[in-house]
């Protein structure tokens, strides 16, 4: 059967998933280790993507063309942009856009030239089942423990909507304000999702992008980001994906 591809952005996240996976073989391609095996009875391929849109596009292409993945699920962290999108919250992308794509005046700003579109939709059915898994995980009392509480993460919320991607870490108030003005419905910003979305669209593959908010893309983003990834991100990704596959 064709595998489900699980793509991680962070070493910590992949490690948490790999710890639960029965790996059958590791295929090294394009500088990446693709772990092929079984997770909760599902045929899976797990891979660390790398950072940025090109890394995401390369990884997604290989997953589709070489591994014949039947669907792609990306898990990672993101900076919160939308009002009320706080550190520790989970964002499930309904659609994705490249905020740094601009071929104007030849094409409208953000539009992928010659495709006629700027937003790429995640798979509805995948999102529905992932949202259910997210709620089960975050609604479990005391799930996040004392380390997360020390970071101010208490009761995370699930948000669904637009996620934007670009080859830039957004780490100052001016940059995040500019994005909020330009794309007022954007919930979160990261560096891979929209690239994966474009490739998945080209390959006709269903996909989903699941992000935990590590920072608010503001002046303290780099500090929050580094503190957060060890404490919360790996746990949320592994628990949600595990829950989702187990159901
Ligand atoms: N991933 C996590 N936080 C981010 C930020 N502030 N900008 C871009 N990508 C991110």
TrEMBL record:
This is 5'-methylthioadenosine/adenosylhomocysteine nucleosidase. Signal peptide: none annotated. The keyword Manganese does not apply. Its EC number is 3.2.2.9. It comes from Leptothrix discophora. GO terms for molecular function: adenosylhomocysteine nucleosidase activity. Pfam families: PNP_UDP_1 (PF01048). The keyword ATP-binding does not apply.
């Amino acid at each position: 059967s064709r595998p489900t591809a699980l793509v991680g952005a962070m070493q910590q996240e992949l490690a948490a998933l790999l710890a639960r996976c029965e790996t059958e073989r590791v295929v090294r391609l394009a500088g990446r280790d693709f772990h092929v095996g079984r997770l909760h009875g599902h045929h899976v391929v797990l891979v660390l993507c790398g950072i940025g849109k090109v890394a995401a596009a390369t990884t997604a292409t290989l997953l589709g063309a070489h591994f014949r993945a039947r669907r792609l699920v990306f898990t990672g962290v993101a900076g919160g942009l939308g009002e009320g999108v706080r550190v520790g919250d989970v964002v499930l992308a309904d659609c994705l856009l490249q905020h740094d794509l601009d071929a104007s005046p030849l094409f409208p700003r953000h539009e992928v030239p010659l495709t006629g579109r700027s937003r790429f939709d995640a798979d509805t059915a995948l999102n529905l089942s992932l949202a259910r898994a997210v709620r089960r995980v975050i609604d479990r009392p005391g799930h996040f423990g004392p380390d997360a509480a020390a970071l101010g993460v208490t009761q995370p919320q699930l948000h669904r909507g637009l996620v934007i991607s670009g080859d830039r870490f957004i780490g100052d108030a001016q940059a995040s304000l500019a994005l909020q003005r330009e794309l007022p419905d954007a919930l979160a910003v990261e560096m891979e999702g929209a690239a994966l979305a474009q490739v998945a669209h080209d390959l006709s593959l269903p996909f989903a992008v699941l992000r935990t908010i590590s920072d608010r893309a503001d002046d303290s983003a780099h500090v929050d980001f580094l503190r957060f990834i060890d404490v919360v991100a790996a746990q949320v990704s592994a628990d949600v994906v595990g829950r989702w596959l187990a159901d």
